[in-house]
Here is the input.
Amino acid sequence: MNFEYNETQAMIAQSIRDFAEQNIRPNIMEWDEAQTFPVDLFKKLGEMGFMGVLVPEELGGSGLGYHEYITIVEEISKVDPSIGLSVAAHN
Here is the structure.
């Protein structure tokens, strides 16, 4: 089995990694201390196509496969596992 990213997966991994570093990491402690759920973050993730990853495009999803889904959850979880778990649960 080949575990190397293809071009699309590598692009998705870099994109979500950059997003997580810019939008999640700086806010982790604030969200934790305030005990808030970052609704706006999930709206941004949806706008970028990172929610509904497995849902077909004709139904409003991204129409991607499990490899891409796992890549998204994995890269977010490297920055904040709780956000990664929420993304996984809502995909």
